[in-house]
Specification:
By secondary structure, the protein is an alpha/beta fold. It has 13 helices and eleven strands. The chain folds into two domains: 2-111, Nucleotidyltransferase, domain 5; 123-276, Exopolyphosphatase. Domain 2 (Nucleotidyltransferase, domain 5).
């Protein structure tokens, strides 16, 4: 069976098609297709407060293409979720209504707490150690979602308006940093055996650049070294020398800074990068809903 997940982020819009195969040991999720379109809604929203005409047209065209692909793949069901940029845009709801009327595709604008819950639904904690605690960090273009869990259970979750595009545009006030780091300190102080779990396109790319064998965790020191290397290069050099996509070459540096700041405040030495995100969480929820409908 196939499911479709659309993640409308502040930096890019993604369509993930996933095959789910049921076995005696449980379902196996295998990514069939991932399409990423760097519309960068946050460029408009974080500077003017609304989504401009050009990006509105790109959104309509992209959603039309995604709807056609969902049909070609014959997905069992799909879900489209929009995050920080759309929920902060003064005309976000209007754009959702326009896409629904023109394309026939419904989009949910989800709050930060819902976003964190969907990401957590990947159940990555089931494959980790029960005697350790984990801080789940998802860094996007417009927001950072944090979830602390222990004994395979979430104990605290919060969304903060700190993201890579906001940092690039100078739209993150010092008080936002203070709130984020204060929350991290408050909820991780005294927690023993604490590791981080990172999700989002930037941390996945950073992990690949370090070339760690066997999917082992990445050390905070390795992340710091990579940040220094990236910061020493110009935008053009990151594209030419490191082969980064143009829409990745600028946001990857502030992404490093967010992860490092959180890990240092929580005194975390290692970060696990399982290559999952919001679209993967949507897929898991779609499958669970499908199973419930058959019960």
């Amino acid at each position: 069976m196939k499911f479709g997940a659309i993640d409308i982020g502040s930096n890019a819009v993604r369509l993930l098609i996933t095959n789910v195969m049921e076995t005696e040991d449980g379902p196996i999720f295998k990514k069939s297709s991932l399409i990423r379109v760097p519309i960068r809604l946050g460029e408009d929203v974080f500077s003017t407060g609304s989504i401009g005409a050009d990006k509105q047209k790109k959104m309509v065209d992209t959603m039309h293409a995604f709807k056609l692909l969902l049909g070609v793949h014959e997905v069992l069901s799909f879900r489209a979720c929009a995050t920080s940029a759309m929920r902060n845009a003064t005309n976000g709801e209007d754009l959702v209504e326009h896409i629904s009327e023109k394309v026939g595709l419904d989009i949910e604008i989800i709050q930060g707490k819902t976003e964190a819950d969907i990401i957590f639904s990947n159940h990555v904690e089931q494959h980790l150690y029960n005697d350790r605690s984990y801080l789940y960090i998802d860094v996007g273009g417009g927001s950072t979602e944090l979830t602390l869990f222990s004994n395979n259970q979430p104990v605290a979750s919060r969304s903060f308006r700190i993201g890579t595009l906001r940092l690039l545009q100078g739209k993150v006030e010092p008080e936002y940093w203070e709130k984020l780091l204060s929350w991290v300190e408050q909820h991780t102080e005294g927690v023993q055996k604490l590791d981080a779990i990172g999700s989002g396109g930037n941390i996945n790319k950073l992990y690949k650049m370090v070339e760690i064998p066997g999917r082992a965790p990445m050390r905070c020191e390795q992340l710091k070294e990579l940040h220094q290397k990236l910061s020493a290069l110009t935008y053009e050099q990151r594209i030419i020398r490191l082969g980064l996509n143009p829409d990745r070459a600028d946001v990857i540096v502030p992404a490093c800074e967010i992860f490092i700041a959180i890990m240092q405040k929580a005194k975390i030495k290692d970060i696990i990068v399982p290559e999952i995100g919001l679209s993967d969480g949507i897929t898991h929820l779609l499958y669970e809903d499908h199973k419930k409908s058959l019960a």
